[in-house]
Each structure stands twice: as C-alpha cells, then as structure tokens.
Amino acid sequence: MNNNYVINIGRQLGSGGREIGAKLAELLDISYFDKELINIASRESGLCEEFFEKADEKTTQSFVGRIFGIRSPFINDGTIPYDNCLSNDALFKIQSDVIRKLADEKSCLFVGRCADYILRENPRCVNVFICSSMEDRIKRLCIKLNINPDEAEELIEKTDRKRASYYNYYSYKEWGAASTYHLCIDSSALGIYGTVEFLKLFVEKKLRL
Description:
Elements: E1 6-11, H1 17-28, E2 31-33, H2 36-45, H3 49-55, H4 63-67, H5 88-105, E3 108-111, H6 115-118, E4 125-131, H7 134-145, H8 149-171, E5 183-186, H9 187-207
Parallel strand pairs: 1-3, 1-4, 2-3, 4-5
C-alpha cells in the first residue's frame, strides 16, 4: 500500500473553504483539485466540459438527457456516440472514477463533489467541513463578487441548498453535520491563515505524517 493521503473539504459558500484548501495543499505540498476536476473528467470521458459545468454539484437528472441528442460541439472526438443519453448520475460516476484515480496516484486535496464519500474506503483520508459566520460570509462575497449584502445572502442560501441537496443525494449522509466529518471548523474563529495552520496540525496528527 502506498503512503498517499487525501484531504476532502466541504464548505459553506463564503466560508473561505476554497482559499483555505488551496493554501493548505500548498503548505503540505500536495495536489489541489476543485474546478480542475471538470477539465480532467472532460478529457477522460471525451465529453465537453459544458456537461460537467452545468451538472456541477447538482442532482437534476434531466439536463443532459434533454440536450444530448445534439451533435458537436457537445462531444469531443466522437468518444461517446451522439445519441447516448447521460444523466447527472452518469456524470457523477465519471467524476468519481477520476477522483479515485487521482487519489491512487498521489496525495491530493479535493474541494466538494462528495469526494469524502467517494473515497470512504480509503483509510488515509481526512474529511473536513468549513463554515463561517453569516456576517463574514456576506462580507467576503460582497468584496469578491461586487454585489450588495442582500444579493450575497440570497446567493448563500441558494448555493448552500444546492450543495446540501447534491451531497445528501449521493452520499446518503447530511451535508454540514458534525457526525459526517472528522472535523468541522468555523473559519471566522481563527481567520483564513489561522484555519490553514490548524488544519495542517490536525492532518499531521490524524495521519501521523
């Protein structure tokens, strides 16, 4: 058995989870995957990235089935017959295979996409959920997206519902519940950098690095 390990991060929108994950991966010198998984899954399957982007962390099963009868540009290199029908479940399966392959090849950090459930049989995983105060989440989104507080709050509620629905549907667990993860942490308590340092220590202790 190799010594590769995996960190899986679930996160509330605006909690800084993506930034924390990127900085933690850099600090530990391991590979970081978030939206990059879409590009890799596209290459591996021969399907256009648009399929994965529109199905990204969604459980709706009708999207691809409705449009897959269209030929180019939705299919790359003719790998998949144009008259196939794919559901979001099929796209999830493709992405899951990519996640397992990457985890087998090297140490990685994955953000979202049910990676903790997909890799549930891997003994060298650390599963973390990052939350934050609503005030900090709204403030972070207002700055990042140049929107007002009401728009930020509406986006937070919509995105969190989507992520919870996706996670609960595919994992049969509860998104954001403490019992689902090895550690849940409020990034407002320590700040971005403090949270990164804390997680580094937690990972090292849990995996005995």
